[in-house]
Amino acid sequence: MRPLYETQRLMRGIRRAALQRGVIAVLDLGTSKTACLVLRFDGPQRVGGDGVGPMAGQAQFKVIGHAVTRSRGVRWGEVDSMRETESAIRTAVQQAQAAAQVRVDHVIVCFSGARPESFALFGEAEVEGPTVDGWDIGRVLASCEAPEIGPGREVLHAHPVHWSLDHRMGLSDPRGQVGRQLAADLHLLSVDGAAIETLLLCLKRCDLECAGIASSAYVSGLSSLVEDEQELGAVCIDMGGGTTGLSIFVRKHMIYADSVRMGGDHVTSDISMGLQMPAPLAERIKTLHGGVVATGKDDRELIPIGGDTGDWEHDRRKVSRTELIGIMRPRVEEILEEVRARLDRAGFDHLPGQSIVLTGGGSLIPGLDGLAARILGRKVRLGRPLRVQGLPVAATGAAFSAAVGLTLFAANPQDEWWDFEIPPDRQSARSFKRAMRWFKENW
């Protein structure tokens, strides 16, 4: 077993090397679709400054290739069938490579499953030199007490959220500043270790080297929330096919993440069972005629179901849109009620800003924003990913929020625990490594 700290540092090193070479791919492995974008980094500021994080600056990039294919072998945002998932990844990456006319060896991947759980940590230490440097930050992070994340759990993200230096609070980056006592609040996100190991092994079988891994809820928030929302406080709800992820941002940092193991595919399944039709046809009817708010004219709008069973009466059936909405709405309400319970548990009501942004493919259901506003008790807007250079029109919809956010994550990653040297003689550092072992050495 390789410790978390060493493995994440290794992936950061791989990412820096890939950015220096100028080409890297990002892979959004979802339950319903697998999307791949190939990025090219140009200019003298390909990777600015020393190290990784806000001090390194944002690299300039352009999307030069993209591909989308139907996911296979993925359930609830996790790999369910290794062979089918490998086939879907190979298809998406090869099509993106063909569009970009370059070969890709390194990918940064995001996923939505593995049951994420958030922890808040605190650490402090005295500054040894005249100004704060990376070594002082490492000692502060090493002083954080390791939480009991449970057996088989691993750490996916560990972001320093809030810095304070003596009497100065709310610093975004204390490096280079003068002070004596440095303290930090750290957000730690843990996930099921087996799901991560399986995903990385699948990438290895596809002859791809992992240069980074991220939570879909996190990167969706990066692309869908505007700057003011990230600063004042907002939640991003990413309604995917198999899961609905949520992430809370304050002061441009994620402070909480969770997921509900229900999504758009469950709505499709309800339609398929309720109307006794194949799942592909149920998905088509949901996309073309679905909704969650019925009106008076919906009783008169008849939807032909069709079919090729050979039974004339069965294949000539029609249902009203009101009946379709009656099947879809209970499941959507169940998802939103579960999201509200997670937000209440996280203390979302106590944030200075309480914006709610809906994104993901599931957010395209007509009338969902109004229903979500009534259930969540807040004004809700539909979020779309930010535009990045070279992004095709087909990839600008809400379903691509995670993929676009992953490009921002690749170009301008935030500081994490493993970006700093942790003193090996610190007891808390040793206990942190014991509690949070990462992947097997041969992944």
From TrEMBL:
One of its GO terms (biological process) is FtsZ-dependent cytokinesis. It comes from the Bacteria. It is a peripheral membrane protein. One of its GO terms (cellular component) is cytoplasmic side of plasma membrane. It is found in: Cell membrane. Residues 24-224 form the SHS2 domain. Pfam families: FtsA (PF14450), SHS2_FTSA (PF02491). Keywords: Cell cycle, Cell division, Cell membrane, Membrane. InterPro entries: ATPase_NBD, Cell_div_FtsA, FtsA/MreB, SHS2_FtsA. Its main location: membrane. Self-interacts. Interacts with FtsZ. Cell division protein that is involved in the assembly of the Z ring. May serve as a membrane anchor for the Z ring. Belongs to the FtsA/MreB family. This is Cell division protein FtsA.
